[in-house]
Write a structure and sequence with these properties.
alpha+beta; globular
């Protein structure tokens, strides 16, 4: 049973106010600079910030069904993802609310008890990908015998923080969507280039499991949820790309060489013009899916991810270069965005994977 996520439920002013609130809360909490303190953290989460955003502002229920107190639709999900990406806020919005939440929302009534936990701000993690971190129904690594699950899934985002796991497994009825409590799994944190997005290897060895969907409905729920999460990742990439462009533009207006601002040099102008194209390339894909004209969400999701991944990586590299010597230092924020760009590019499939997926979906 797939679920049709509405485009939006807030008007433009309400959406702008929600954006501003998230931006202000993240800045007051000290981000993006605060990400440095998370180096080596197995959770990569600011629990106090997530409590404020999830419980007091209601971000944990953004895009979820009304029955669990949900608010908004796709436009709200993407607006929040963009603001969190701009500030590098270390919260599990993308991995829990968006990825797990949308998968559970597509599972119907059987997923409702777990969806309520997500809406309350409890952390869930999705163990659904193959060894390369991609969602591919043909490459599911876990098996389900009707009551227990066995197998290993790598690169589970925020797996070490999860209270329960949303798992894809193969069994007698094809693909099964199952729930495993984190206490019944073996979770090994993995080092991550992005301090705020650690992953984990999750191993199930006859772990008790509850199936909430099987067969075609299970595959549809997972695929639809992944597509929305992929688009939300594109919004996260857009937020970071725009932030890197803005801070680089500000820097070249102030930095002087040869008694002139470096932004007046023709070579710098050309590079910034190319950088602006990167920003707008990432933005155009997001605007397409929120315009109401999208008729193939899966293909649009892959376009957004392919464009956003390349734009974000290129923009962060350019930001480091154009900041000169200071751009390479630990104290400057540029490397924090470079780290996020690399994580986002690999999450749920890199640009090459999604270009190939576009070709398959459009029968090229």
């Amino acid at each position: 049973m797939s679920r049709d996520l509405p485009l939006s439920t807030l008007d433009r002013d309400e959406l702008a106010e929600l954006r501003a609130t998230v931006r202000a809360v993240a800045a007051e909490a000290g981000y993006p600079a605060g990400v440095r303190a998370l180096e080596g953290s197995p959770t990569g989460i600011d629990a106090d910030l997530w409590r404020v955003l999830a419980e007091e502002i209601g971000l944990a229920a953004i895009g979820l069904p009304d029955e669990v107190g949900g608010l908004g639709g796709l436009a709200e999900v993407l607006a929040i993802a963009e603001e969190l990406g701009s500030s590098l806020a270390p919260v599990p919005f993308l991995s829990t609310t968006v990825l797990c939440g949308q998968i559970l929302a597509g599972a119907g009534e059987a997923g409702a008890p777990y969806l309520e936990r997500v809406a309350e701000g409890r952390i869930a993690a999705a163990a659904i990908t193959n060894a390369r971190g991609e969602w591919s129904p043909a490459d599911i690594t876990c098996t389900f015998d009707g009551s227990t699950v066995s197998g290993t899934v790598r690169f589970v985002a925020h797996g070490a923080s999860a209270e329960f796991l949303v798992v894809a497994a193969r069994g007698s009825e094809g693909i099964h969507l199952i729930i495993v409590e984190a206490a019944d799994a073996s979770v090994t944190p993995l080092p991550s280039l992005d301090f705020s997005r650690p992953t984990a290897t999750v191993t199930f060895d006859g772990s008790p499991a509850v199936a909430i969907a099987s067969g075609t409905p299970a595959e549809a729920a997972i695929s639809d949820g992944v597509d929305i999460a992929v688009i939300a990742t594109g919004a996260d990439q857009l937020g970071g790309t725009q932030r890197c462009f803005d801070m680089t533009l500000e820097y070249i207006k102030l930095r002087r060489q040869f008694n002139r601002e470096i932004g007046s040099f023709q070579a710098i102008k050309h590079r910034m013009a190319d950088a602006l194209i990167l920003v707008e390339m990432a933005r155009s894909g997001i605007e397409k899916v929120t315009s109401g004209d999208s008729d193939d969400r899966a293909a649009d999701a892959s376009v957004v991810k392919a464009w956003g991944s390349e734009a974000y990586i290129a923009m962060t590299a350019e930001a480091i270069q154009l900041h000169g010597g200071v751009g390479f230092t630990w104290e400057h924020d540029a490397h924090l965005y470079f780290r996020r760009a690399r994580f986002d590019a690999a999450f749920l499939g890199d640009a090459a994977f999604h270009r190939e997926r576009i070709a398959t979906l459009l029968a090229w």
